[in-house]
Amino acid sequence: MSFRHWRVEEDQNVSTITFDTEGANANTLSQEALDELAKILDRLGAMELEGLIIRSAKGSFIVGADVNEFRQIDDSARAADLARTGQHIFGRIASLPFPSVAAIHGHCLGGGLELALACTYRIAREDEGTRLGLPEVKLGIHPGFGGTVRLPPLVGDLSALDLMLTGRTVSARQARKLGLVDEIVPERHLLHAAQAFIAKRPRPRRARWWQRLPALAPLRKPVARLLERRVRAKANPDHYPAPYRILELWRQQAGQEEEARSLGEMLAGRTSRNLVNVFLLGEELKRRGKKHQHGIERVHVVGAGVMGADIAIWAAARGFYVSLQDKNPEILARAVKKAYGFYKKKLKQPRAVQEAMDRLMPDLAGDGLQRADLVIEAIVEKVEAKRNLFAEVEARVPAGALLATNTSSIPLEDIAKSLRDPTRLVGLHFFNPVAQMQLVEIVRGAQSSDAALNRARGFTVALDRLPLDVKSSPGFLVNRVLMPYLIEAVTLVEEGHSIADVDGAATDFGMPMGPILLADTVGLDIALSVAEELSGPLSIKVPQRLRDMVAAGSLGKKSGRGFYSYDKKGKPVDPGTRNPTHAPLTERLILRMVNEAVACLREGVVADVDSIDAGMVYGTGFAPYLGGPMRYAETLGDVGICNTLRRLAQEYDKRFEPDAGWSQRDLFQHQLLAKG
Ligand code: NAI
User: Fold this and answer.
1) Among 84, 323, 398, 642, which one is most buried in terms of CB atoms within 10 A?
2) What separation in Å is there between the alpha carbon of 331 and the centre of ligand 1?
């Protein structure tokens, strides 16, 4: 019998089945792969075997269920049935009359880990590439192939809940410590170790008795309450129900049937559908970027301030050789110190830290230019300074070097004026903080060549960031859509609303941070300069209050005082209490953003509505459970939005007038994810 996704071999009464998804780089548990697995189990069940080994022929064991299939599911009964099918197949592995071993390397996630949990033993390759976890909660669901039931008895209740509630992944070594795997071995011993487990049949691992204490009836309720409090600090139950469901299933000591039913509800719910969409948008941006060879090894960054330092530090962490130039040696020294702190925290192992430090060279004289494959400019936001710099850069770099600017607001065409070859200049617009914000806007200037843009896209993916194509126009996509929202927030404060009310309205809606706190964090001087830059083309009225504060040196967090006051640790002091207000704060804030997004579509700043959603979620953290501003707009319906905008325009000001783009249906297309 032959299969499309699995290979089956028998040797000395041990069957080894190798997962090798046809036509894909990674193994996912699609319906088809699961059906085949069921057939294989039919056959194995009829044989007299000593044991079964499950392994993968790809770079990873199994990365999870096939998320693309989630999109086709819209009813909870069907979703629950799919979970039952998976549970049934894994249940058959668990009840085979001979031991089974999962031989794990690379990623073993979600349904993949649930499959491994159904095996008698788990052995993992001991290296940095191995990661195990149950990240379902990040997609608004929970494990559904028996994972919520099998994990606690194996690793203990608190560890199991921690893994499921956070969705975090663990290394092979951590997994061994937790008891998630039985043994970790170097690559060459993986199969051998699996065979040894089958031959020796040690007693399968269980959690220690004290690790199961929280599950005892008298303790369960208070433990659940405590954990719920922690979850509540991070996730609003109305927006993100899955972690609460995980706790509830545990509190009830639910079995697989309840798990399946609950998963069905989660999977068909709004939050999961939107989170899955957001995830797929990110994957699609990566996939498109990956198609392009970047040919970049050496990166030269000019300007070691807030952005330049972080870009350089990140690029060196990702394996690039980076020279970092600044005219000020103290700023360079500060950047090197920051790099050391960052690598120690992120890379942990002293050797990896040292290697990353060795790849990052402070470079006062700009010697790195001579060998650079890519130059990223991140100096002050002044067109003259940038032009002068690029003229010098062009004279010193190799002929094939790609040139990029991190400008937030200056049209590329203006910067390119000093270049002999303007086709090699693109925008690589990173977001602050670079280590957290996944998006990079790839800015196409009027003269940027396709070859240059392709290299920039490929490089961005190599940095593990998401490249989003945008046209060179004021504010590109993200700042342009964000700015009307920030300005509206300041206007509301000017009108007399408290900052607690304004920020609260936004965070209640699901924004990661209120707009006033965001402005303070970015720096009011920077917010003001971007607002002024956009005020001409976008007819944004810059509030006087913002100008006054910057003139008075209240620059936000960095100066200890902005709209909020900050303590020495940079925490806002007493944001004030919220008053019940009936003013349409949320509408005014969010609809300004949505309306501007439609203007961006009309002007072709980005190609489609998916690009807006990807940009706003990955570039600003726009309420992921809503899937992005355009998906949110779709759920409200454009007629309703336009009516509300018109009402606000009458009540407040013409800035709320619906953009002309609302009446052009052909603008509203889902191209990134063609099936919308
Ligand atoms: P910054 O003021 O922190 O850093 C600029 C650095 O460039 C300073 O260290 C300065 O000494 C150095 N510098 C200036 N002229 C130079 C020259 N000719 N040669 C070498 N070094 C020079 O500025 P920041 O905030 O890092 O911004 C840099 C660029 O990134 C700007 O174009 C800005 O619009 C853009 N950007 C800023 C973001 C932010 O949140 N701060 C976000 C995204 C883009």
Assistant:
1) 323
2) 11
